[in-house]
Amino acid sequence: MKISKTRLIVWGAIVPCLIAGVLIWRLQFAPETASAWKPRRSTPRRSTPGTDAYERETLAHYLSLMRPQLELYRLHHDKYPHGPTNHDFKRQLGGKTRPDGTPDAAGAYGPYTCFCCNRMLNPFNNSSAVLVDSDGTIGPGKVRISGPEACGWYFNPMTGRFTPNTPDHIDIKPRRSF
Q: Measured in Å, how far apart are the chain's first and last C-alpha atoms?
């Protein structure tokens, strides 16, 4: 019996798809009969949400996202974002900018981060606002720590220091990428 080349190609494509479909169905709808295999998280969670350790991990994750973006901004503009207010700081990082750092929709650089989307909340005071210490006299964790005008983050544009603005969490280091 002679098998046509087309029939061989069709069966060669269908059989592996059927096998993959059965395996996927078995893992999804019949996990008790499947092996103990579990999909691996892309970012393993090392602690339980709501605990101090989890909140510290969140801060470390945000620092690991933000600090490289600040360095990229410095490479493009030869200085860190220098907006004197939270709003200016977020506009410089969240939109396009000219070479002098002025926000401009037609600018050559940026956007650097979605920090302006208010997603990076400091979990210890629930604020995404940035305290910009233009002259370096305030220091992190000293003013506007809590309350309606709380700032979740501290930034010094002269040194590029970006840390949480809560006194007990200034020493948190960024999480390393794997």
A: 55
pTM of the model: 0.67
Helices 52-77 and 86-94 meet at what angle, rounded to 10? 70
Distance between CA atoms of residues 162 and 140, nearest Å: 9
Residue 43 tokens, joined: 């970012």
Which sequence spans correspond to the domains of the chain? 1-39, 52-169
Asked if residues 26 and 34 have their Cβ atoms less than 8 Å apart, the reply is yes
Contact 124, 144 (CB under 8 A): no
Q: Check if the beta carbon of residue 116 is closer than 8 Å to that of residue 81.
A: no
pLDDT in tens, 15-28: 676 676 666 666 66
Give how far the C-alpha of residue 168 lies from the chain's centroid of Cα atoms, to the nearest Å.
22
Q: How many CB atoms lie within 10 A of CB 95?
A: 16
CA-to-CA distance for 43 and 20, rounded, in angstroms? 26
